[in-house]
Amino acid sequence: MQYFDIINLAYKTVISHKLRSILTALGMVIGIASVIVLTSIGRGVHAFVLTEFTQFGTNLIAVFPGKTTTLGLSGATISTVRPLSIADAISLGELENIIAALPLVQGNARIETGKKQRRTTVLGVGAAVPEIWKIKVARGRFLPKNEQANPRAFAVLGDKLAAQLFAKTSPLGQRIRIGNDRYRVLGVMEKKGQMMGFDMDDTVYIPTAKALEMFNRESVMEIDLLYNKNTQVKAIEKQISNLLQRRHGREDFSIITQDQMLKSMDSILNILTLAVAALGGISLLVGSVGILTIMTVAVSERISEIGLLRAVGAEKAMIFKLFLSEALVLSVIGGVIGIFLGIFIVQSIKFMVPGLPVQLAWGYICTAFIISLLIGVIAGVIPAIKAARLRPLEALRSE
Amino acid sequence: MMVRDTLSFSWTAIKTQPLRVILIVLAMSIGITSVTILTALGESARLYIVNEFQALGTNLIIVLPGRTETTGGQPPLFGATPRDLTLADANALYRSHHIAAIAPISVGAAPVSIRGLEREVTILGSTSALRRVRHLSLSKGHFLPEMDIDRTLSICVIGQTIKDELFARQQAVGQWLRINDRRFRVIGVLASEGQSIGVDFDDMVIVPVASAQALFNTQSLFRILVETKSKEGMYKAVDDIRELIKLRHEGEDDVTLITQDSVVNTFDEILVALTLTVASIASISLAVAGILVMNVMWVSVTQRTAEIGLLKALGATQRQILWLFLTEAAMVSIAGALSGLLLGKVILLILQVSYPEFPLYLPMWAVFSALAVALLTALIFGVLPARQAAKMNAVTALNKR
Amino acid sequence: MIELESIHRIFQVGEQQVHALNNINLTIKKGEYVSIMGPSGSGKSTLLNVISLLDQPSSGKYTLNNQVVTELNDDQLAQIRRKNIGFIFQFFHLIARYSAAENIEIPMILAGIPVKERKLRVEEALVDVGLQSRAYHRPDQLSGGQIQRVAIARAIIMRPQILLADEPTGNLDRRSGEEIIELIESLNQKKMTLVMITHDEILGCRAQRRIRLVDGKITQL
What we know:
The complex is a heterotrimer of chains A (399), B (401) and C (221). Chain B has 401 residues and is of the alpha+beta class. Chain B has helices at 3-15, 18-55, 87-92, 129-133, 160-167, 209-216, 233-248, 260-282, 284-303, 305-313, 318-354, 364-391, 394-399; strands at 60-65, 99-114, 117-126, 138-141, 155-158, 176-179, 182-190, 204-208, 223-228, 255-259. In chain B, strand 2 (99-114) and strand 3 (117-126) form a beta hairpin. Chain C is built from 7 helices and 10 strands. In chain C, the strands form 2 sheets. Chain C has a 6-stranded mixed sheet with strand order 6-7-8-3-9-10, with helices on both faces. A 4-stranded antiparallel sheet of chain C has the order 2-1-4-5, covered by helices on one side. The two termini of chain C are 17 Å apart. Chains A and B meet through helix 2, strand 2, strand 3, strand 9 and helix 6 of A and helix 2, strand 2, strand 3, helix 8 and helix 9 of B.
C-alpha cells in the first residue's frame, strides 16, 4: 500500500466528520496561534529593548567609581573616597583605539530664564555627547571641544526644555540661570523621547567641570568611552583597567562593556520569550489531549470497520498507519491554519497598535509546526496501537 | 424528572465511556492547574513584595533632594543637586508634630580593612532612629546610640556578610576596623535580613551620619527617612515637610517626597495586572478544553441518537433532554476543575517545600473562579450539542439503526 | 485446495469448555460449490472462520493451496486472505462514509495496486454486478440488494480463488436474495470455489455438495 493512499484514506475520513474534525483542529489552531502571537510579542519586546540599548552604539564601555560585581549601582556612585575625575576621563580619551571619552554627572536643578523657570535634569557632560550617544544637535552647536578642564559656562537644551522655557523665541545665545550660575545657550538638541524611563528631552547639558562645581562633588558618576569597532573589547578593557590602576594605584572602579550588558539583557529576554511560549504551550497541550480523545472515539466507533479491513487483508501495521495518519492529518491541518491565523493576528496587531513592538519569531513558528506534527504522532500512537491490536474476528462481530 | 434522577442518568452515561471522560477531565485539569498555579504565583509575589515594602518600615516618607517637573519619569533617585539636603534640614523636620522619627542617610563606598584584609563596602551614615524606621535587629552588641545628629563618633555597626568576611569566627564587637584612613570600633552586628528589596544590609557598614559626611567630605544627605506618628498623619506630615524645607531653602520647593503607600500601590497595581495577564493567557487553554467538551458531547449525541429517540417516545420533553446532556457536560467539567485544583495544590506544595523562603498562597477567589469558569465553559460549550439532542425528531431518531 | 485434517476448536466460556468444532476432516477441491448447513450453534460459523483464516483452530492441520497455514502469524494470514479469499457477509460491512466505488477499491489499495489499474478494475467489477450507474452513491443511498452487490464486487475484485459467503441473503427480501444467489453462482461457474453458510434448506440444496454440521461434527458429506 502506498503512502499516498494511506494519507488519502485518512484525509477522506477526516473530511467525512466535518464538525468533529473542525472542532478538533480548532483546539490545535488556538494553541499554535497563541504560541505564535505570544512569541511574536516576546520577540518584539526583545528587539525593542535591544534597540533601546544599542541606539548608543555597541562599541561603548562605561567606567564607574567603586568596585562592584553586580550590575546594580554601588554606593560609590553617590559618594566615594576614591573619586573618578575629569582628568581620568581625559587621559582615557588619549588611549589608543578610544575615539572619545565622556565624563558624566547627573543631577537636578532649577533652570531660570527671565520669566520662566523649570526644575529638571542636569547632565554634566563633555563635547563628545553627539558622537557617543548618537543624538544630533537640532539648532546651534554642542559644547566646545578641548575645554574639559576649565570650561566656559555654556549650556545646550533638550527639545522639550527649550520649548518650555522659550516657547517660540529662539533660545540660541540667550542667558539662563542653572542653580546659582549663569550660562549662555549654545544649542538645542533634536527630539529623542523617553529612554529607559528617562526623558532625554527634558534635560540641560552643561560641561562636567561646571556640574561638579555646582553639585559640590569631586567624582564624576560615570565615564562613557567610545572605542574603535575593529578592536577587541577584551584588549581595550585591559588597557583601561591598566591605565586607571596606574593613576589610582589600585583597582577602585568597575568597567561594564555594552557587550556584557547586551549579552545579559539578551539572555534575560530570551528566557522571557521562552516563558511566554510555554504559557501558550499549555493550550497546545490541551489541544493535543483533544486529538487523543477524538482518536480514541474514532477507534471505538470504527471497530467493525477495522475488522472488515483486517478480513480483506490489511496487516496490523497498515491499520496502525491508517489511524496514525488520521491523527497527523488533523494536527497538521490544525497546525497550518494556526500558523496562518497567528501570523494574521500578529500582522493585525502591527497594523492596529503600531506602538506595540511585535515581530514574527520564525524560529518559534517552525518549532510550532514541528510540534504540531509531533502532537499528531504522540496523540495518534496510542489509539492506533489499540486499533491495530484488535482481533479481526471479534472486531467484525461488534456492531 | 427530579434533579437526582437527572444526575444519576448522566452519571451512568459517563460511566460507560471511562477513557473518553478521563481524557476530557485531563484536558480540563491541565487548564485549571496552570491557571491555579500561575494565579497563586502572581498573588504570592504581590503579597511578598507588599510585605517586603511594609517591612521597610511603617508610615514611611522618603525625602530626596531635587525635583523634576518631567511627568511620567522616575523621581531623581541618584542625581546630585546644587542645594543639598543637610543635617540641619533633617533636624528642622522635628518641628512637625506629625513626625515620630527621622533618620537622615548618607551613602558612599569606601574600602574597609582589618589586618591586611580589605574590601570595598557600602558605608551608610545614619542615626539611632534608623533602627526604628527600618525595623533592623541586631545579632550582637548595640546599634548606634542616641546622640546629637551632627556629632562624629568613631563607632560602627556591621552587617552579617562583612562580619563573616572580615572577622570569620572571631568576636567582632569591640574590635577596631579601618574605613579608608579612619579607625572605627565595632559596637554591634546586624542580624541577617536575608534578601530584602532595595538595600542589602548584610553587606554594609553603618556609622554615625556626621562621621560618614566627614569620611566622604560632603555636607549633603542622600535622603531622609521619616516615620510619621500615624497613617492619617502621613499626608499632613508631607505638607509639613514641604513647608519646612521651602522655608529653609529660600522659598524654593526642591525636594521630592515619596510616601510608602504610593510605592506599595504602584507595585501592587503592576503585579495585579501581571497576574491577570498571565492567568488569562493560561485560560486560553480552558477555551481549548471547552471546545473538546463540545466536540465529545457532539459525538455522544450522535452515538446516542437511538437512545434519545426512545426517551422522546417515552415522553421526555425537550427541556429534559437538554438538561440531561448539559448535566453530563457539567459533571465532567467539574471533575476536571476539581482534579486540576488538586493537582495545582500538590504542585504548589512541592514548590513550597523546595523554596521555603518564598511563601506561596492560593487565594480563595482563584479556587472559586476556577470552579465557576469550568462550569461556565461546560454550559457554554455543551449547550449547542445538547440543543441538537433536544430538537431531534423522535421518529427519525428511533429509526436510526 | 482446502484440506482440513482433524480440526478442533475449543472455546473457553467462563469455567466451561465449548467444543465448537470436533474432529473436522474436509477437503474442498478447486471450483466446487459447497454449502454448509446446520442449526444455530452447530459450529458452522466457526468452521467458516477457520477456513477464512480469521480464526485459528485449537488443534489440527489446515492446508490451503498446498501450504500449511496453521503455523502462520497474523500478518502472513492477512496477506493470504487478501490474495486468495473473498468475503460476503450477512451484514454487508460496507464503510458508510465511502462511495460504492471506493468500497470496492479498498482491497486493491491494501494490496498496493496502482491507481490507474484500480479505476479500471472497479469499473469492470461494477459492470459485472450491474451497478455502473451507482458508482458514486454512498451505502445509505443504496437498497439492501444493491449494497450486497457492492460487497460482492469488493469480494471478487482481487480475483480470489475462494469465495466465502456467510448467510448472504439473510438480511435481504426474497427477490433481491434470489438475484444475489444467482450472481454468486454465476461466479462459481467461472471456476471460483464457493463455500456458503446458510440455514435455509432450499438455498443449501442448490449446492453440488452439501455439508451438515451438528454439535461441531460433520454428519453428512
